[in-house]
Amino acid sequence: MIPRFARLLTIGICLFAATSARADVASKIAQETAEFVLKKFGKKAITEGTESLAKRIASSAARHGDDVFKAVRRVGPGALSLADDAGEQAPKVLRLLSKHGDDAAVWVARRPKALKLLSQHGDEAAEVLIKHKGLAEPVLEKLGAPAVNALSAVAPQGGRRLAMLAESGELAAIGRTPELLEVISRHGDAAMNFIWRNKGPLAVGTTLTAFLAKPEAFIDGTNQLIGTVGENAVKPIAEAAGTAISCLVWAVVALVVGVPAAGIYLAVRNPKLAAELTKAAVSRGVNARS
Q: Which residues are listed as membrane-spanning (predicted)?
């Protein structure tokens, strides 16, 4: 019994010593951080003494982790207030502040909607909000998780274009938005640029289906959207042109055959044309009977 108690006591003492040592280290880092903040931001940024600030930093680090130290060094004492306001999202906010500094404060930590998106979609959403400043938030609210991946894959210009398509309703007009966003996620700016240039043709259902079936071929230029649309458009035009020509031929033939005087006049004035028209009329008649 005594040896077992001794072992437990030894373990307890070791844990206490380790905890105390860690607390001492954290207190030292907190003090150094407070002094660094004073030098970097000046007395105006600190409404309290360095010792008081150091205690707040150490307390926050004990609750949220070591990201507190770097976050405070990057954005100042305000990082502590932002962490408190973030509630359960505090560790994520501090991690973002330590990585992105003021950009994380402006585009995520101080925006309730952005914090909600951070809660829903995780750090990836926050990275997108910072990358596409001011543009990503409404896109993510409207399109959700697929938009996170799409915006992650494109540069700022692609982000602006996607935001414009979403806001104008053109993206919805094209249809099958999640699938389009998946294509952008896989192919990045190349896909976004293609969709931007061809938003009109892609609004045609058959064209969109062809594109989504094999987007790589259209993006790299192997296939052309104009061919897909043109085949459907050219055929009716050709048929209409053929019908118009046919009507013209029959009208002239009727004039030639039905009005003898006109036929004789045409034969005298232009025998070659009269012969061609007569030949066309005979050919049309044979085809009609067959």
A: 248-268
Q: Tokens 């206490």: give the residue.
A: 16
Instruction: Write out pLDDT tens, residues 232-248.
Output: 433 444 444 445 445 44
Residue 244's domain comprises 236-289
- Convert the pLDDT of each residue in 135-145 to its tens digit: 999 999 999 99
**Structural contact between residues 93 and 124, judged by C-beta atoms closer than 8 angstroms:** no
The Cα 105–Cα 93 span in angstroms is: 8
DSSP, res 44: G
**Which residues, 6+ apart, have CB-to-CB distance to 281 below 8 Å?**
249, 250, 253, 256, 257
Which residue, among 97, 110, 35, 42, has the nearest Cα to 70 in the 3D structure? Answer: 97
Q: Is residue 204 part of a domain?
A: no
pLDDT of 273 > 70? The answer is no
- Nearest CA to 56 out of 38, 40, 34, 35 is that of 34
DSSP assignment letter at 255: H
Rounded to the nearest 10°, the torsion over CA 40, 104, 186, 208 is: -140
Indicate the pTM of the whole model.
0.68
Give domain status of residue 274, yes or no. yes
Of 78, 117, 116, the closest CA to residue 97 belongs to 78
By the 8 A CB rule, do 199 and 174 touch?
yes
One-letter amino acid of 78: G
As a whole number of Å, the end-to-end CA separation of the chain is: 114
Number of domains the chain is built from: 1
Chain centre to alpha carbon of residue 191:
10
5-37: string of b/e by CB count within 10 Å (b at 16+)? eeeeeeeeeeeeeeeeeeeeebeebbbebbeeb
Residue 276 lies inside a defined structural domain of this protein: yes
Distances (CA, A) of 42 to 4, 34, 65, 77, 101: 56, 11, 25, 11, 18
